[in-house]
Amino acid sequence: MDEKVETYSSVFLTCLSVALYLRHNLTKTALSHHLDILKVAMSASYKELTSPHNLLAKYENLKTRVKKIFVCPKPKCSTILIVKDGKPEENQPCGHKYIAKQSNNCYVLQLPIEEQLVYFNKHRGLTKAVPCDPNVRSDVYSGELYGKLRTEGKIDDFTITLQANADGAKPFVVTKYSFWPFLGIVNEAKYKLRRNFVILMVLWYGNESHLLKPSWDGQSTN
After folding, report:
1. I want to staple 109 with a disulfide (CB 3.0 to 4.6 A). Which of 114, 121, 138, 203 is the partner?
2. Which residues are CB-neighbours of 91 under 8 A, at least 6 positions away?
3. CA distance 221 to 216
């Protein structure tokens, strides 16, 4: 049994300080003042809490690129809107006009799959596929399709495959709009690990249950 290590509430201050900074959109000056107050209240000193730079540097590796794609809000129209200065233009190629004050936004948030897989492999690790009894269905490795792809040489020990899952939820009871996250499960990870750590590939918000084309445009890895 692993030895228990006593911890103090102060060890969570870095995470809580960043959460405060992001939640309330603080300026770097306001964050610096917050850290100054912590210095007075704390008996110990932590390098991460000495300045905004040191604090944010601790979580630098968590930064990622998020691509936002606006989609025409008209029902059954999946046209990707032309955007200028971060906002959709009024005249769009589908012929529908986008009026900022009247139109409800429909959009797709794309998160880089490759970056997430690299991070997952570095911090969680993958399991090398082992030969399975073809007569026993015990995991993804022993599935007929997985075995066929390996036999054909389309995947090998250096390939990462994902199971894609999607489900929707409405933010309000009475609304035609809903969120649809597209999640990826890493097949080559151990079962418990793959169930606990999923990859968010795409997040769709709009008045359609799911629009695959705008959701997956540009989502590819080498």
Report:
1. 203
2. 97, 98
3. 12
